[in-house]
Design goal:
It is built from ten helices and seven strands. By secondary structure, the protein is an alpha/beta fold. The N and C termini lie close together (7 Å).
């Protein structure tokens, strides 16, 4: 059985590592991670790719949570009769929905980072929001945030430095929560069908 996985590019590397560890026969089709800056486009891109892949695999799955599509992605997966990752966003998947809710109750002004966002922070956040050109917009974008929580799956000294630099750039306190990739692994196991 070969399974095609339409995946968010921000978690595609994690999926590949898990698949190799578990010897899952999957082919990953990542979509650009920067789609998250335009969540209204995600469902259409997932739909396009699922349509293109139809009949090329024994089954298909979608490695996206809702990701700000407000249910549009659910309409797509229902139409294609495939499963997607549960949850509102990858933070739910990595840390667990209850933990994210607890962190948000403790501090509603929490900005979350994943390893991908730490690694690509300047390009994904600073450049995309124009803060490299218009630094005076920082309070407009981040004035209501009080902290950054990095949901670390594979922390390294280099990523720790990058996360600290991101916190300085946004003028926020940094907290590091080691979450690993077991939540993603469980979520993937629920949507992949090999029979």
């Amino acid at each position: 059985m070969r399974v095609g996985v339409v995946a968010c590019g921000a978690i595609a590397t994690h999926i590949a590592q898990i698949a190799e560890r578990r010897a899952w026969p999957i082919t990953i089709y990542p979509l650009p991670p920067l789609l998250h800056n335009h969540p209204e486009k995600i469902a259409n891109e997932v739909d396009r790719l699922l349509t293109e892949l139809a009949g090329q695999h024994d089954s298909l799955a979608v490695a996206y949570a809702d990701c700000g599509t407000y249910g549009a992605i659910d309409e797509v997966v229902t139409r294609h009769n495939v499963l997607r990752l549960a949850g509102n966003h990858c933070y739910d998947i990595f840390a667990g929905k209850k933990e994210i809710e607890r962190l948000m109750q403790d501090e509603p002004g929490t900005y979350f980072l994943t390893d991908f966002l730490v690694r690509s922070f300047h390009r994904s956040v600073i450049s995309e929001l124009g803060l490299d050109r218009y630094p005076d917009l920082l309070p407009d974008y981040f004035g209501n945030y009080r902290r950054i929580v990095w949901l670390a799956t594979s922390p390294s000294d280099e990523l720790k430095r990058s996360a600290a630099e991101a916190a300085v750039a946004l003028e926020l306190e940094l907290e590091i929560r080691l979450v690993g990739d077991s939540g993603l692994e469980r979520a993937l196991a629920e949507i992949l069908t090999f029979s």
